[in-house]
Amino acid sequence: MKRMLLSLAMVFGCTGCHLRQEKGYAQDYHQEPYEQQMMMEYAEAAPEPSMDYAMGVTSAARVNNAPPAPSSTISNKLSAKGKNNQGKDDKSDRMIHYNGSATLLVSRLPETLDRLEEIAVKNGGGLIARGANHIMLQVPRKNFDQAYTAALELGEVLYKNISTTDVTEAFTDTALRLEAMKTTRDRLIELLAKTKDEAEKVRILQQIQRLSEEIDSKEAQLRGLKNLANYSNITIQLELRQAGNIRNHSAEISGFQWINGLSPFEGYGLHAWKKIKLDSPEGMVVLEPKGHYHAESADKANVFAGRIPNDPQGNSAFWKDAIVKRIGGEYTEVDHFEAGEDLGIRFRSDDEQPYIWTIFLKADGRWLNVIQAYYPTEEHEQRLSSGVQAIVSGGAQ
């Protein structure tokens, strides 16, 4: 009986533990104490295990003749995937997302935006978001180069950049967590069928409902990651040909030039800075767990983070004022708030469907932490901002 209790504890209570040891997650699925208690009660009524356990078999496959535990199966596939016969990475097996951005100087805003949208449709894609002077497009990955080149031909290029994000690890991590959750939910459903006490049934149903909600969230993240791998983004900002409306990088005082490079649509500039670590916001997934911080939701909200030398040295309020002075005039609303030890700035665009851009700042001695979040709509902000503020308040490493 002790062997059976240990086996079930390993299957239901330690699936997440195995994943943590194997992948080193910042966050993992947490099994409630009540689930563990119910599983142990279930074990008391279960038959003795077969000799397979004595031979080292500890997966769910030997509890009720179920398929092998998902963690080992997916881990084995992951170890084989992306390797060729020489053991080197096979880039063709990786899930790579391309993101192209640019700033164009044009004579007509609406007409240029229309033409950019036409380029996306012609290349098998479409519109994600559009404002008075910016547009975000999506095209199949195979057509990215053609569409991006065509977009740059519509104006004078002031800035351009192409960045890539490998979402393979994020996809696999999320899939592992999802299958661990599904395994536990299946066992709880089995337990529910065997339980006679009504109060216990209610508690089990509550745990099943909670797991089902978390499973739905993970499945949405997987769909978003698949979409990232299959499609590429093109984000274009337009500047009208008139005096005084272009940020002047070269004329800026040394030490402040990075501010003029900030953009709600292009957070990859922060990747040139020192890395900082943050947890994954609720409703979003970290795309490169071991790289520079970039979290994204399935519907295109983004969080980027980086650390830059605090030079000239100033406190958080000093840098907040410097950013507002240089960027604030471009937005219809500028608000200030606090998130833990960080100071926050909220910009709201002057569009029919405005986007929201928040910047969090924390000056810590010789370093300045900068975290920015882009919400394509105010609905995105209402749904995701509390999770973003929670990880910011929790502190960067």
Largest sheet, described in full?
7 strands, antiparallel
Helix content: 40-55%
Q: Give the number of helices.
A: 12
Distance between the first and last residues' Cα: 45 Å
Q: What are the segments in which pLDDT stays under 50 over at least 5 consecutive residues? A: 1-30, 33-90
Give the helices and strands as they follow along the chain: HHHHHEHEEHEHHEHEEEHEEEEH
The percent range for strand residues is: 15-25%
Average pLDDT, to the nearest integer?
78
- The order of strands across the largest sheet is 6-7-8-12-11-10-9
Number of strands: 12
Polypeptide structure, described:
Residues 1-30 and 33-90 have low confidence and may be disordered. The two termini are 45 Å apart. The chain is built from 12 helices and 12 strands. The chain is of the alpha+beta class and 397 residues long. The longest helix has 33 residues, at 198-230. The strands form 2 sheets. Strands 6-7-8-12-11-10-9 form a 7-stranded antiparallel β-sheet, sandwiched between helices. A hairpin with a 2-residue loop joins β11 and β12. It is 41% helix and 22% strand.
